[in-house]
Amino acid sequence: MSLTASPEQTPTGPPESDSGSPARRSARLGDRIFAGAALGAGLLIMVVLAGVFIFLLIQGVPGLSVDPSTYGQGFDNFWSYVAPLLFGTIFISILALIVAVPFALAVALFISHYAPRRLATPVAYVIDLLAAVPSVVYGLWGGRALAQALKPVINWLGDYLNWIPLFKGPASPNGQTALTAALVLGVMILPIITAISREVFAQTPRLNEEAAIGLGATRWEVIRLAVLPYAKSGVIAGIMLGLGRALGETMAVTMVYSSSPKFTLNIIGDTSPQTIAANIANNYSEATPDKQHVLIAAGLVLFAFTFAVNFIARWAIGRGERNLAR
Amino acid sequence: MKTSLRRAVVPGVAAIALAASLAACGDDNNNASDSSTGAAGGSVSGKLAAGGSSAQGSAQQAWMAAYQQQNSGVTISYDPVGSGAGRTSFESGAYPFAGSDAFIANPSDEYTKAKQQCGGADPIEVPDYISPIAVVFNLKGVDSLKLDAQTIAKIFNGQITKWNDPAIAQQNSGVTLPSTAIHTVHRSDDSGTTQNFTEYLSKAGSGAWKSPASQTWPSTNGLSGNGTSGVITSIKGGDGTIGYADASQAGGLGVASIKVGSSYNAPSADGAAAVVAASSLDPSATDNQLIYDVNRTDTSDGAYPLLLVSYLIACPTYSDANTASLVKGYLSYIVSQDGQKAGASNAGSAPLSSDVSDKATAIVAKIAAK
């Protein structure tokens, strides 16, 4: 069994040009149409994004300066209202990444380098299926089944590991905690990170791997020396996509755990920090017009934050690629 | 792949289009036949799309079904989008009427907008749905509890933390209370149920509840659940939990009797309706409004003052004559004794007392075309 899937099939350069053949001329019109369509699609995305941004801006800005009583729960201005929510969003998303990333990378490596072909394909298929489960189903499963199943674990953490701030307790009686939500969210972003990682792992140049083997490297050393450095930027891109999903995920976090807008690191207690998306979903339907502006302004904050995260990630990846090319 | 997809999609789309056009034809036929024969409740026909309070959702289902059966040319839809969204849509003119767990206070921006939408006339606001709110709990070995409002307030504000606290024990002699920690469960979403529950605590709690009534739960402590079903799930999922929910949704959980005067009353439809009937109107009420300042400290026999009143909000005049007669017909049915009975049997709500029902009917009868 070879280490990589099928290096022979990987194209090593641009396909051979066939200019001069009679079919070429008629293909030119098709080329132009396709180029136009691709450009149009690209521009449309920009327009949609700009549209979302303008909507959030117009509807959200009035929410920055409404009567303080609109915020409720003792908050007296917009920033004190949104700060715990932004904290909650980041906190829960990072927890989800901590759960998902090691698993996703391990599964991706298993599929691309360890598993025999017969096993790799079905495993990859099943992982991809995870992405097809609707988030509301994850929400129901997490809030009812998983929460009940985790009760003993949560009690144990609260009894024996309560010196760690994350597990300070006292333990929630029904298991609907941020820990449960992080596990559910981790499962939800797992397929995204896995799919992208296994593609970049599989694209590692065969020569690099064979050179490492030739030097007497073990399989793990091959992965560490040849595969991981090559795949780094792709893996980071996958993680960022997963993070984006986690930041914006609404139904699962709304339904799984009991949340309030507060700063706490305790993830097994009665209540944990609420995310911006969950706050909007919870409160929009009963909101007065002023409160709706406040909620949309919170959405604007989430939009800006997600944008910044992606921007920084792009920059990091770009830098990584330049370093690799050097 | 592409062609096979198209092969699958195209007939499907065609079938849907065909079905829709057939259904439209069907509607037209019904309209024609019924407007000529004239069904019970007057010869109204047409479509009405409204929405609002989700608390009223299941009662509205029952009302729509019954009203459409009586008037087969009528199609009514009610979208339980939530009270706030319902009011916003009413004020913008998207809904001809709305259901809301809170009446539009006067004066306020919302009231001004609603008045503008109604062509300068005071909007109609009548109660249509009363539901007792139950204090529900899940405590191993305990099926029923007696609690006064002050104790409930202290439980929910965190002053009482154990089930065997003397404040609870002295009201429940004969019940063996465990030393389990109390975990309170509140609504994580803004809700009329929270508004009414906190209003009860602040007015009846003898000073133990400091925060004013609000749709948003005032504290960031305690368990929470999304919607009534989320609260019930949270309570069922853990021992030692206590929360509040529509009494009709309390199935399978322990329900506390609350202290009214010198006795303890379990949630009851009659008790809730009686409290509303005996309450005084809000001072801002105009002739078009039957808005109640619910008497949370009612001590009469059998009263149950922990309840939610939900309102219908409509305009006294509509520029379209058909809309006016539809809204008038449907709203009259809802607040009528028949409609209230249908709501009670389907949604577990408390029917309006005959006095309140008559007053609401008189107000709704004012609806007319401009």
Structure description:
The complex is a heterodimer of chains A (326) and B (370). Chain A has 326 residues and is mainly α. Chain A has a single domain (36-325), classed as MetI-like fold (Orthogonal Bundle), CATH 1.10.3720.10. Chain A has ten helices and two strands. Chain A has helices at residues 23-60, 78-114, 117-130, 135-160, 178-202, 206-214, 219-248, 251-256, 276-283, 289-325; strands at residues 259-260, 272-273. In chain A, strands 1-2 form a two-stranded parallel sheet. Chain A is globular. Mean pLDDT of chain A is 86; it is low at 1-17. Chain B has 370 residues and is α/β, with parallel strands linked by helices. Helices cover 41% and strands 21% of the residues of chain B. Chain B has helices at 2-37, 57-70, 83-92, 109-117, 149-156, 166-169, 192-204, 227-237, 269-278, 321-335, 337-347, 354-364, and strands at 46-52, 74-79, 97-100, 124-138, 144-147, 183-187, 223-225, 241-246, 254-260, 263-265, 280-281, 292-293, 307-314, 317-318, 368-369. In chain B, the strands form three sheets. In chain B, strands 1, 2, 3, 4, 5, 6, 7, 8, 9, 10 and 13 form an eleven-stranded mixed sheet that branches. In chain B, strands 11-12 form a two-stranded antiparallel ribbon. A two-stranded parallel ribbon of chain B has the order 14-15. The model of chain B is unreliable at 10-41 (pLDDT under 50). Chains A and B meet through α4, β1, α9 and α10 of A and α3, β7 and α8 of B.
